[in-house]
Design goal:
single chain, mainly beta, 6-stranded antiparallel β-sheet, rod-shaped
């Protein structure tokens, strides 16, 4: 027996036969018995008889009807008019797979502010040889990204993620025939939340011609505040004045200047982090030169 190879997708082997040397044949070779069985079993060999070709020393034949993606032991015995000779040395072959693999079952096991721990289980009914797993993931507003994973792996930590952000994930598995259908998608959020606005008494400190905003009184929600944006207007006007530059952190205070004394204003402050943004809208009155009090009301809402 010269060689064995898988062919097509019909669960077959192509067998290339070559007769033994003349000094060990003890007569004219009439044909061959090809024996095969599933490897690692004690089952007897099933033999197929093949007549020797009169046209060529080397000839080929096929073993068909085998199980998909299964390892087989194969032996050959030559025979002549006196009977069959000894078995050849065993050769092992593996039939081809039937289809791309079944998708694994994906699960998120734990989270941090910047990572997700995931694990997956291969379908126990799927006997194909997986060559690669691919993890697909995205945020609510992002594009799908991919991470190629080893076929031997069953868990992975997805790192460098945004704090306090929801992610959607699914997996695919690939083998020699292609990539299987996607798994069921799962969703998980990294730890952390959008910023939390402070009480007006802690945040607003008006003067007669300015107001000091105590930015350090905002709580991060577990995700660092990156910057603030500020708008303000007279309470009885509709047009906002926007501070042109965003206020990068760290920064404790910001002063809005050039206000008129003893006048009501509205200031809207937006805190931005990876987890989202929170807007706080405050109404206040600048002080009269002789005034020492303050009247303030406050409204706050979050957007994630």
């Amino acid at each position: 027996m010269k060689c064995i190879e898988s062919i097509d997708y019909k669960f077959s082997f192509a067998i290339s036969l070559q007769p033994p040397p003349d000094d060990v044949t003890n007569g004219v070779i009439k044909g061959y018995y090809i024996g095969y069985r599933i490897s690692s079993t004690s089952e007897p060999y099933t033999f197929k008889q093949v007549e020797k070709s009169a046209e060529s020393q080397q000839q080929a034949t096929y073993i068909t009807g085998l199980q998909p993606f299964t390892k087989y032991d194969i032996v050959v015995k030559a025979f002549n008019s006196a009977g069959a000779g000894p078995k050849s040395t065993k050769t092992v072959g593996v039939t081809l797979e039937t289809a791309p693999p079944t998708s694994p079952v994906l699960q998120v096991t734990s989270t941090t502010k910047s990572s997700l721990d995931i694990k997956w289980e291969k379908d126990p009914k799927d006997k194909s040889a997986i060559t690669e797993y691919t993890l697909h993931y995205k945020t609510d507003d992002g594009n799908w990204l991919q991470e190629g994973l080893s076929s031997d792996a069953d868990k992975f930590t997805l790192r460098n993620l945004r704090c306090g952000t929801r992610y959607h994930l699914y997996m695919t598995a690939s083998n020699s025939l292609g990539t299987g259908e996607p798994s069921e998608a799962v969703s998980a959020r990294t730890r952390g939340a959008a910023p939390m606005s402070p009480q007006e008494s802690a945040f607003i400190q008006p003067n007669s011609t300015s107001v000091t905003l105590n930015l350090g009184t905002w709580q991060s929600g577990g995700c660092p505040i990156r910057h603030f944006t500020v708008q303000y207007r007279s309470k009885y006007q509709n047009q906002w004045t926007t501070i042109p530059d965003k206020l990068d952190m760290p920064r404790d205070t910001f002063v809005v200047r050039h206000l008129s004394p003893d006048r009501e204003y509205v200031v809207m402050v937006t805190a931005h982090s990876e987890a989202g943004l929170t807007q706080g809208e405050y109404s206040f009155r600048t002080l009269h030169a002789s005034q020492a009090g303050i009247v303030a009301t406050f409204l706050s809402f979050s957007v994630e």
